[in-house]
Design brief:
The protein is of the alpha+beta class. The protein is built from 7 helices and 14 strands.
């Protein structure tokens, strides 16, 4: 079952915290910033998004609305690398999952773009693994990151192929409304998360894998709802708040500007472009892990969803 509660299994979470801290200490870039300047991150694992709070260091960056952030990546004009199939969260393929349990044998590139940064390394099998961190410590920092992604969406529109995006909505969306939205942009949904609230008030989520021509399979959703209800977990189902999609790149600016969407995160695609521009072999097939895949938990619990109304 793909039902997850937030922060209830302390033993399991403790082990994940140790794993996450090890990975971040050995792999993800850490600039010299004071201890108080930390950003909560969430590690993405195959078929499960963990809600373990860990920390990575990021510099403080302030960018006004409508301004171009200093250091924003500029993608090579006309460069259209072909992205080979790669397994990500929500997909059924697991053999090619990013090697997050293994330290890269060689660092190939790191870059800082202000509101976000990444580090890439080559694994023992020759593949590339990149990890992305972004600043979500404050509402202003998160807004800066969202603005940067809108700029990136405009740049990536000329890729001439399908591209991936991690879409976080401003608030919950009813399942039928979500299906209509997906069909309107011609997207394929790899994975969707819906918020549910348990009888005791604890928040959790239901994760649903997409299938061909069905962005949110009703039979799978009903099965998960029935399971949660029968075990006394589910009281309300506010709706969809996050989706990992694949869509024609030319649609990215439209998605980023959609009033229903707060963040269309396209930094994984930008990382592959940056690696390719730097001449890194295997850049187009790089596995990219985003920390966290969605900032909705912070939007919902730390900042309040009323601050994200259009």
């Amino acid at each position: 079952m793909n039902i997850r509660f937030l922060g209830v299994n302390k033993v399991h979470f403790g082990l994940l915290i140790l794993l996450a801290l090890f990975l971040l200490s050995t792999f993800l870039w850490k600039p010299q910033t004071p201890p108080e300047q930390r950003v909560n991150a969430v590690m993405m694992f195959p078929t499960v998004i963990s809600t373990v709070p860990v920390t990575i260091s990021l510099p403080t960056v302030t960018v006004g609305v409508g301004q171009t952030p200093t250091g924003a990546p500029t993608l090579p004009v006309g460069q259209t690398p072909t992205l080979a199939p790669t397994a990500y969260v929500g997909q059924t393929v697991t053999a090619e999952v990013p090697h997050i349990y293994e330290e890269p044998s060689e660092e190939v590139r790191r870059a800082n773009f202000g509101s976000w940064n990444y580090k890439a390394g080559r694994m023992n099998d020759g593949s590339i693994l990149a990890t992305i961190g972004y600043d979500s410590r404050t509402l202003q920092a998160l807004e800066t990151y969202a603005i940067d992604n809108r700029l990136l969406a405009n740049q990536l529109a000329s890729l001439g192929r399908r591209a991936e995006a991690y879409v976080t909505f401003r608030t919950y969306m009813a399942p039928d409304q979500f299906r209509v939205w997906v069909n309107s942009i011609g997207a394929h949904v790899n994975y969707t998360e819906l918020r549910f609230v348990a009888i005791d008030g604890v928040k959790g989520f239901i994760g649903i894998d997409g299938v061909e021509n069905d962005p949110l399979p009703q039979t799978l959703l009903e099965r998960e709802i029935e399971f949660a209800t029968s075990h006394g977990h589910l009281q309300t189902l506010p709706g969809v708040y996050f989706a990992y999609i694949t869509v024609d790149a030319i649609r990215l600016p439209q998605i980023a500007a959609d009033p229903l969407v707060y963040l269309a995160d396209v930094t994984p695609e930008a990382v592959r472009q940056d690696l390719a521009a730097a001449g890194v072999q295997g850049a187009e097939q790089a596995s990219v892990v985003l920390f966290p895949p969605s900032p909705f938990w912070k939007m919902e619990n730390d900042f309040g969803l009323e601050n994200f109304e259009e």
